[in-house]
Amino acid sequence: MADSESVPVKTYVPPYQKERWREHADRLGMSQSEFVRTMVQAGRRDFEVPAAPTEEPAESPSSGLEPRVKDALSAEEHRSWDDLLDNLTDGMEDRLEEALNELQEANLVQYSGRHGGYTLVEP
Questions:
Q1: pLDDT digits (tens, 9 = 90+) for 85-116
Q2: Which domain holds residue 113?
Q3: Which has the least CB within 10 A, 17, 73, 103, 113?
Q4: Is there a contact between 45 and 90 (Cβ–Cβ < 8 Å)?
């Protein structure tokens, strides 16, 4: 399969979660597919998601990322989507693990094997 081809991936989430993802994708100027793909990669690597704008941005929502993309592309003439994403998100997995460990030690977050994920601890 060529690097530029895409294949479908299916997942099931509660309606409220899909709505949150749709809203966040809209704020970032992304399609839902692009948002989910980017967030999955972000969970695996160092990826800085821009904060939700408080005002209308002067430029496109991706403008803060453009210098990093240009730097990554200056190192090689051609880079695939996945290679660029890996380059821009390097280190996020370690940072996420460290943050979750600290939150668990502070008893602010806990992992539930039954529910297959992390959750905030209710006060």
A1: 887 777 777 788 888 888 889 898 898 888 88
A2: 91-123
A3: 113
A4: yes
